[in-house]
């Protein structure tokens, strides 16, 4: 491709709303343009990258035996009502009515569509297992679309759904998808870590997210360098050391704590550590009932863990007025209650039942010292794991220290179980001739997010550094000369490379050398050949591998010799991405 006939609408300035480097570079290097919040146009350069990623995903999915489909994006409300998600999906689902006032949604995901499609097709155990997928546009009205195409409102997802007779078969496909994902991301040049993920209230039994470690990641990963454990903090249990030996704790005693409401204020006032106090977290659950979670003062609750324990879709903190309505005092609530209140009490596992803590006294300006669960509360201690794990907490597998990292989720594999096959009664004739309920898995990859994440991982102050597998072009040929004679030789080289099947972009534009070289770096094409002054004088051209940044001055001998050098490098760069992966 000649740049003069192509479109390289690069821009100098970072767009004001682009706060992460992938967003900035995709716009500045001419890959995407913004239409409105969370909506992006893909320009020819951007589309080429997207298509190359899709090709890798498609090749690996097909190799795994999955079957490609394409389903309508627009989905009727009945589908979602049947699985009870029409209301549950809330505001994230774009909804609309047709001319007959019938309701539809622009699919944010396609479990319902695929299950209803496959139900009459899968009849017998002989039709199983099947893994079906599509690569298609999804719509999600995200609360905060941001980071360009990392969190947009319209994006392409590869979504796959597998159908099985039993758990064992589901497990096999799940493991196959796990390996397939590792291959896909390795081929895309991305270093991913599969982490244990929360399966939420979807009722599934196993789930892993494929994460790329990045400071802009919206997820927090807990990693153990000793045993290799990796989990999303939402899923990582807090391992609590049990009490060595019970110590005698003096009687519970009310103490004055005037105006001291927060854990910090109370612990400082009483000269104790925050870990020697218990705080109460008051929650409104699904706007239906109240929960009070008691957790050690130095700990925070994790919302996802809390939602799972409380079987909640929505949680919010109670307002002071609501706390007062319960007969409690904001800032002074404790677990020792004289009378019944309209709230359920929960204790976090961080609380040791035999140990003494400071708790709220349920009286203004007062706390209680020496609260011991086993002594003050009737019944056996039942602790729930609400707590968010912190840096240096013990690994749930081996007990060594955890480290926390931020990560971007590029893919997700999930044992769905029978939620959807039950909702749509997808049963098949079993081996015993009787109808048998099927079980399912689902597997997603965000194509646009993958593209942006590659840039987050590999860039420098000059621009993007594409891995050769997804780069918009493999070779960038930059001619800086304006002399017809030299241009003639360069044109022949260009034609020769094209004829050899090399995807080359020749920057033949009539622009200043500085401008052309800057564009080439920013666009991030892996192999760069520059024909400048030294070509006219000494038949020399420069050869650079973008990611290594080392410029070689080579003497031009023949088109064939040049091609051989390009081909050898191309091969090497492709080979590196085929590696054993990081499984
Ligand atoms: P997140 O927690 O980031 O919102 P999710 O859990 O909602 O992601 P899934 O429903 O598992 O995501 O979707 C599968 C994949 O689709 C994700 O791993 C991600 O790569 C991609 N994806 C999800 N939401 C978006 C979005 N708003 N923009 C771009 N890609 C997305
Ligand atoms: Mg989401």
Blueprint (SSEs and pairs):
Blueprint: H1 21-28, E1 32-36, E2 39-42, H2 44-63, E3 67-68, E4 74-76, H3 77-82, E5 94-97, E6 103-106, H4 111-118, E7 130-139, E8 154-164, H5 167-187, E9 193-196, E10 206-213, E11 219-223, E12 230-232, E13 253-256, H6 263-269, E14 278-285, E15 289-296, H7 303-310, E16 315-317, H8 320-325, E17 344-348, E18 356-363, E19 366-372, H9 373-376, E20 383-384, E21 403-417, H10 419-423, E22 427-429, E23 435-437, E24 439-446, H11 447-457, E25 459-460, E26 463-464, E27 475-479, H12 484-499, E28 504-507, H13 513-523, E29 527-531, H14 533-538, E30 540-545, E31 551-555, H15 559-578
Parallel strand pairs: 3-7, 15-17, 17-20, 27-28, 27-29
Antiparallel strand pairs: 1-2, 4-6, 5-6, 7-8, 8-24, 9-10, 10-21, 11-12, 11-21, 13-19, 14-15, 14-16, 18-19, 21-24, 22-23, 25-26, 29-30, 30-31
Helix pairs in contact: 1-11, 2-5, 2-11, 12-15
The structure holds adenosine-5'-triphosphate and magnesium ion.
What does it look like?
Helices cover 27% and strands 28% of the residues. It is α+β, with helices and mostly antiparallel strands and 583 residues long. Strands 3, 7, 8, 9, 10, 11, 12, 21 and 24 form a 9-stranded mixed β-sheet that branches. Strands 16-14-15-17-20 form a 5-stranded mixed β-sheet. A hairpin with a 5-residue loop joins strand 5 (94-97) and strand 6 (103-106). It is globular, with a radius of gyration of 30 Å. The relative contact order is 0.14. The model has no long low-confidence stretch (mean pLDDT 95). Adenosine-5'-triphosphate binds next to strand 8, strand 21, strand 24 and helix 11. Adenosine-5'-triphosphate (ATP) binds at residues 109, 140, 142, 151-152, 155, 157, 409-412, 444, 446, 448-449.
């Amino acid at each position: 491709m000649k740049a003069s006939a192509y479109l390289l609408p690069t821009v100098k300035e970072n767009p004001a709303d682009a706060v992460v480097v992938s967003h900035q570079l995709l716009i500045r290097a001419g890959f995407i343009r913004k239409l409105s919040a969370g909506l992006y146009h893909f320009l020819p350069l951007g589309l080429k990258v997207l298509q190359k990623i899709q090709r890798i995903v498609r090749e690996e999915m097909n190799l795994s035996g999955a079957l490609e489909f394409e389903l309508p994006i627009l989905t009727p409300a009945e589908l979602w009502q049947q699985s009870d998600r029409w209301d549950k999906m809330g505001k994230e689902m774009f909804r609309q009515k047709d001319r007959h006032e019938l309701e539809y949604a622009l699919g944010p995901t396609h479990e319902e569509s695929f299950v209803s499609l496959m139900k009459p097709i899968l009849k017998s155990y002989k039709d199983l297992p099947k893994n079906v997928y599509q690569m298609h546009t999804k719509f999600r009205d995200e609360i905060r679309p941001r980071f360009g195409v990392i969190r947009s409102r319209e994006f392409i997802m590869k979504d796959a759904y597998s159908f099985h007779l039993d758990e064992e078969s589901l497990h096999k496909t799940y493991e196959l998808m796990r390996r397939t994902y590792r291959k896909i991301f390795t081929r895309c040049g991305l270093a991913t870590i599969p982490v244990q993920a929360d399966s939420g209230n979807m009722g599934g039994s196993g789930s892993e997210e494929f994460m790329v470690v990045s400071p802009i990641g919206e997820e927090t990963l807990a990693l153990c360098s000793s045993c290799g454990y990796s989990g999303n903090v939402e899923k990582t249990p807090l391992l609590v050391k049990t009490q060595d030996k019970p110590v005698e704790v003096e009687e519970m005693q009310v103490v004055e704590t005037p105006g001291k409401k927060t854990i910090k204020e109370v612990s400082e006032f009483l000269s104790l550590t925050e870990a020697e106090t218990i705080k109460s977290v008051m929650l409104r659950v699904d706007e239906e009932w109240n929960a009070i979670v008691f957790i050690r003062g130095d700990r925070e609750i994790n919302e996802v863990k809390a939602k799972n324990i409380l079987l909640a879709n929505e949680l919010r903190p109670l307002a002071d007025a609501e706390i007062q309505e319960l007969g409690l005092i904001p800032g002074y609530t404790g677990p020792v209650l004289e009378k019944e209140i309209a709230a359920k009490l929960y204790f976090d596992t961080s609380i040791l039942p035999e140990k003494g803590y400071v708790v709220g006294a349920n009286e203004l300006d007062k706390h209680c010292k020496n609260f011991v669960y086993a002594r003050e509360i009737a019944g056996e201690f039942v602790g729930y794991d609400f707590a968010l794990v912190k840096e240096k907490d013990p690994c749930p597998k081996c007990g060594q220290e955890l480290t926390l990292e931020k990560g971007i989720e590029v893919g997700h594999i999930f044992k769905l179980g029978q939620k959807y096959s039950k909702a749509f009664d997808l049963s098949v004739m079993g081996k015993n001739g009787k109808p048998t309920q099927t079980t399912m898995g689902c597997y997603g990859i965000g194509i646009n997010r993958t593209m942006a994440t590659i840039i987050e991982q590999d860039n420098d102050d000059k621009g993007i550094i594409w891995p050769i597998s997804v780069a918009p072009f493999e070779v960038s040929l930059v001619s800086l000369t304006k002399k017809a004679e030299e241009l003639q030789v360069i044109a022949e080289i260009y034609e020769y490379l094209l004829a050899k099947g090399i995807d080359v972009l020749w920057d033949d534009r009539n622009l200043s050398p500085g401008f052309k070289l800057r564009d080439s770096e920013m666009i991030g094409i892996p192999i760069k050949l520059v024909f400048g002054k030294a070509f006219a004088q000494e038949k020399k051209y420069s050869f650079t591998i973008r990611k290594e940044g080392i410029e070689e001055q080579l003497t031009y001998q023949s088109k064939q010799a040049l091609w051989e050098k390009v081909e050898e490098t191309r091969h090497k760069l492709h080979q590196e991405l085929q590696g054993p992966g990081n499984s």
